[in-house]
Amino acid sequence: MKCRVCGKLYPESAINFCVDDFGPLEVTYDYEAIKGQVSRDILERRPATMWKFQEFLPIGPDQPIVGRNVGATPLVKADRLADALGVEKLWVKNDAVNFPTLSFKDRVVSVALSKALEFGMTTVGCASTGNLANSVAAQAASAGLETFILVPADLERTKILGTAVYGAKVIGCLGTYDEVNRLCTQIALKYGWGFVNVNLRPFYAEGSKTMGFEIAQDLGWRLPQHVVCPMAGGALIGKIHKAFNELYATGLIDTPVTTKMYGAQATGCNPISDAVKQNREKHKPIRKPNTICKSLAIGDPADGIFAAKLVRETGGWAEDVTDDEIVDGMKLLAQTEGIFGETAGGTTVAVARKLIEAGRIPRNEEIVLCVTGNGLKTQDAVFDSLTAPATIKPTLAEFEQLSGLIEAVLV
Ligand SMILES: *Cc1c(COP(=O)(O)O)cnc(C)c1O
């Protein structure tokens, strides 16, 4: 592992920051060696899961794997959404149907818990805004690990339910995500437990790369010109781009990476998009996030600086959208593509629309939108904006009396 600030090298262990400068640690690889082990042919013959890219993940071939079936979600050619947004070539990478817990977090948790087993840990946990809690609880259950999950106490009911059902010990903390995260750091240090996004974070974050590998493979081993990605802690957007670079470094794609990366946030918690728009190197932490998009509501994102830098360096941009625009984005995605994404998906669609309308993303180039979570977990966000179903007796007469409904279809 290597410090992203000073470059100091560390042997693999459950540590996430450099002892000299507190810089985050990142896993490094020997790409020349990987080049000799994989090819497009070899990868295509492997089972369709994220683990086909194991050489690019920090888990050795003889180590146990938690979450064997994670990944390989559809890359959907989204022609109807493209029409609605006024663009020509659009895809949705649909992690709303990831296995086992319907979000992109299944990827990062699979790697982190595999590493926890390798380190001999028997208790794991996380600080979470919801999706991570679901995935840690489910995958830890399948691996027979003891689990502690700490969440802000005001989290969506569905996300708490979808954690507790797996037998995890769920603790609601009266505070923000950032405060919960700090407590987890103390617990991890004191008890030696594996907190996937704290002391296992360098390994965890690598799992995000598989979303990038899959996009490239599904496009026929080439890259899109533009990727729009939601940002919470800011890791995913950077790891998708890292994946693209690794594919080039190992000869799996033919041309150097020129993809522009765009970050999406909610206006009620927009530290990274704000830093990009204000041309500030370091984000200003948001003390009290206030948005329906709770899964992205991290006020002081661990990878904020790196995400803002990446967006600038690739020639992309970042934007944020209001809660109303998020709901509109969720409905637009559902009504054009039949994909019910969660609030983060609505954020991504709404930000894409804003960037296209502002001329930041050209209308005639290839765009991939990353939809990272499932709308069934955030039903409250859209419930009030949908028309309640009409109730009738089961007779043709009553059906035909529903004013306007039939006429609307027949014209
Ligand atoms: C965690 C999460 C993200 C973003 O992840 P980061 O790597 O922290 O930026 C995006 N979408 C959803 C639904 C998430 O749960």
TrEMBL record:
Pfam families: PALP (PF00291). Its cofactor is pyridoxal 5'-phosphate. InterPro entries: Ser/Thr_Dehydratase, Thr_synthase-like, TrpB-like_PALP, TrpB-like_PALP_sf. Keywords: Lyase, Pyridoxal phosphate. One of its GO terms (biological process) is threonine biosynthetic process. Residues 69-373 form the Tryptophan synthase beta chain-like PALP domain. It comes from the Bacteria. One of its GO terms (molecular function) is threonine synthase activity. Its EC number is 4.2.3.1. Belongs to the threonine synthase family. NCBIfam families: thrC. This is Threonine synthase. The lineage of its organism: Bacteria, Pseudomonadati, Planctomycetota, Planctomycetia, Gemmatales.
